[in-house]
Design a protein that fits this description.
Shape: elongated
Strand content: under 5%
Oligomer: single chain
């Protein structure tokens, strides 16, 4: 299965990463080294800001700040608080009101701005730079590189504007330029050290760099400055998730939702953390809340389907995958997972259709070949199954399962020598797989290498004392006329699975054979 890899938030294109911390050290990375120097600078700047009578906390904001912060993903509700705390530099013109609305300011922010305190009631607010307005339009159209260029143009005329650096950092994040984004957010923090969103943004950057501890530290710094900051709690959850602290992550997401109950992304993140904590019923609830808030949230539909699949509710999982596919028909992970679910339902025609369409739309897609091979094998199209499995092995040459399934296809296609080679590879790559030992024994048995086959069947039985493994060993022993040992194995098989009539029938046949043999 493939988990959609999207991270929530206004300035992000993907949702919570579907993997745990990989243990990468950033101790020698440029970002980490910059962080160490940045840490001391921000401490000094913060102390200075707190001591100064005219610190940035008391400086009013202007329309340029607000547009830049909207570009950077700061929600209007948060900007309302900033305007109420700090006031604005001057009266907004009607044109500026329209410009703010066009960049995403909601009605509540506009009302707050028009009624906000100003240093001089007759002052007219400074015009919003045209380059910044153009950047806002590009950002809303998701033309992030174009927005970056216009922001750099605006910064050329106003290099000490913290909000412009913050917005530029957001556009660089959208392009996965993490080192450059770090530089811009760091500069924003130097210029405006008491702005909590700087630390939230840094928390997210560290999270994306798999540096969970620093992500947690930055999120907590943001919360120390603004304990009601929902986004900081959300990013704290991301950092905790990346370090494997799933329950603590769930708690952080709950704190975020207590302050922003309408955030579908946070419910989605909570669902992923709950899934990682193996609390599947709660994960289902969280994904459904995300969908209730945003019905077109295809990632939530897809992840809901994944959890339903884990719970064995395959029909419901298919329904959710179909809905996700309706919303995002070009997303390859949906078709991949839907095809896998059809395979698990033994609906091989549907699986073949889904995966074939996936490879037609996305010839670069590398997953799902093993599933399509299973569909071909079920339809006895062994040549096609072998071709798919060979593609899977090109992408994962050390995949024990892929080698074993390829061996099965070759064995069914009456190519025992090639099958034997694949089974041996599967066993060497995963010597603890009873299934691989079982199939290697089967191939050896068909090649009349019965002593080698016995060894493999006994190893499979040692790893998994199942009725089927007892039965396979019994068949091998019978071929060597070792009837007493074979009878013992069949007795074990019958006791382990009394509902399987085959085992009793073979035992009775063996008893009759032993009786006839002794009578001669």
């Amino acid at each position: 299965m493939v988990l959609p890899g999207a991270l929530p938030g206004a300035f992000r294109t993907q949702h919570l990463k579907q993997r745990q911390q990989q243990g990468k050290s950033l101790s020698g990375s440029p970002v980490k080294l910059k962080f160490l120097s940045f840490f001391f600078i921000v401490v000094v700047c913060s102390l200075a800001a707190a001591a100064a009578p005219n610190s940035s906390q008391t400086q009013p904001v202007d329309a340029t700040h607000l547009v830049a912060w909207l570009i950077g993903g700061v929600p209007s509700s948060r900007l309302v608080g900033l305007v109420q705390e700090r006031g604005v530099t001057g009266l907004l013109t009607q044109e500026q009101v329209h410009q703010l609305e066009s960049t995403g300011a909601d009605a509540n922010l506009i009302r707050t701005l028009t009624g906000a305190k100003t240093p001089a009631s007759t002052a007219i607010a400074a015009p919003i730079p045209l380059a910044l307005l153009a950047a806002a339009g590009e950002a809303r159209a998701q033309h992030y590189h174009a927005a970056e260029l216009r922001l750099r143009e605006a910064l050329h005329s106003d290099p000490q504007n913290a909000a412009l650096h913050f917005a530029l950092g957001a556009m660089l994040r959208q392009q996965d330029q993490w080192d450059d984004a770090f530089d811009e957010v760091t500069q924003s923090a130097r210029l405006m050290p008491d702005f909590p969103e700087n630390h939230s943004a840094l928390a997210y950057i560290f999270y994306r760099l798999d540096d969970g501890p620093n992500a947690i530290a930055e999120a907590r710094t943001a919360l120390s400055m603004d304990p009601q900051n929902a986004e900081a709690y959300q990013f704290l959850g991301l950092g905790l998730y990346s370090t494997g602290e799933y329950r603590a992550a769930v708690h952080a997401f709950a704190e975020s939702l207590a302050r922003d109950a309408g955030n579908a992304d946070t419910y989605y993140d909570m669902g992923i953390a709950l899934n990682a904590a193996e609390d599947l019923p709660a994960a289902l609830w969280a994904y459904r809340k995300a969908i209730q808030l945003r019905p077109a949230f295809w990632e939530a539909h897809s992840n809901l389907a994944l959890v339903l699949h884990k719970e064995g509710k395959l029909a419901e999982a298919v329904d959710e995958y179909r809905e996700a596919k309706r919303i995002a028909p070009q997303e390859p992970s949906i078709r991949n997972n839907l095809g896998n679910t059809y395979c698990d339902q033994n609906k091989f025609d549907e699986a073949e259709a889904e995966l074939s369409e996936l490879y037609r739309q996305h010839p670069e897609w590398q997953l799902g070949h093993s599933c399509l091979a299973s569909a071909y094998m079920a339809k006895k199209n062994y040549d096609s199954a072998v071709a798919e499995l060979q593609l899977a092995l090109r992408q994962n040459p050390t995949g024990a399962t892929e080698h074993r399934v390829l061996g099965q296809a070759l064995l069914l296609d009456d190519k025992p020598d090639a099958a034997l080679r694949e089974f041996r590879l599967a066993v060497s790559l995963n010597p603890d797989s009873d299934v691989s030992h079982h199939y290697l024994g089967t191939a050896l048995f068909q090649q009349m290498q019965v002593q080698a086959a016995e060894k493999e069947f006994r190893e499979a039985l040692r790893l998994s004392p199942s009725a089927d493994n007892h039965y396979s060993l019994a068949a091998c022993l019978m071929s060597m006329d070792r009837y007493e040992e074979a009878l013992s194995e069949l007795e074990f098989a019958s006791r382990l699975d009394p509902g399987r009539t085959l085992y009793r029938a073979r035992r009775d046949e063996l008893l009759k054979l032993m009786k006839d043999t002794s009578a001669r």
